[in-house]
Give the backbone structure.
Amino acid sequence: MGISVTEGITNVAVLNGVLWFGNGPNYGGPGLITINNDTTGSPAFVNPDAGNYHIGAGSAAIDHGVNAGVATDLDGITRPQGSLPDLGAYEAPYYTLTVATSGTGIGGVTSSPPGINCPSGPCANNYVTGTVVTLSASPSITSTFTRLERRRVFGHGTCVVTMSANTNVTANFAAITRTLSVALAGSGAGSVTSAPGTINCPTGLCANDYVTARSSHSLLRRPSLRPSRAGAAAGCSGTGTWRRHHDGQHQRHGQLCSSHPHAVRRPGWHGRRQRDQCAGNHQLPHGSVRQ
């Protein structure tokens, strides 16, 4: 039994802020007992056999004390570190874990136990000393994860941190890119530009790396002033404005029209496309092909 109060007029016990652990019955006896703010659980002392009664992570004493106006513990650590003072002579210190993201890609980092959800939520959280925090990195569909970096210690996908000091961790993400190359062909003259405006062929760049995405990049053919018949650019067909996606696949918007008088077939297309005629019920402007 933890505490026993015998019967008698003066045998009255008032207990404030008690941690019960391993007592069997916590209290009893015929006397009067008044208990306020008690809790049950392990104190998780660091090493009680050696006289070290500092409390560690998971201690039931953390944030279960009462504010008695004591500003520091026996080690001079400010009280409280958490929402309330800890029970006992020692306050468990809190340390800050801060996460940042870097690189050309996009991704996020979450923690277990919870508290960090970066960059969409908190990128820093306070954990009591001794807490084991697992950080997990998740890249977006346009990126790959490269590494988690903490004091020159690298992890791949996860990083385990045991909190004993303020700690910074950086997650690196790399963008997935694809190269779009443009070449001019035919007996005529002209140029090709892109939106976003990076390609300006042949006077400027004729190739550029783009981050893979479900959005598309448009190429605009500009013929010279003299009459000419425009050829097909790599990955495109027809004349006018071409659109190519950089998610590893060619996605087509609407239906396809051809300005050529003959019918052609291409893999993945059903049926035929003919002059001024679409494969479906919608028509695009004459000479305009989107891919």
About this structure: The radius of gyration is 35 Å.
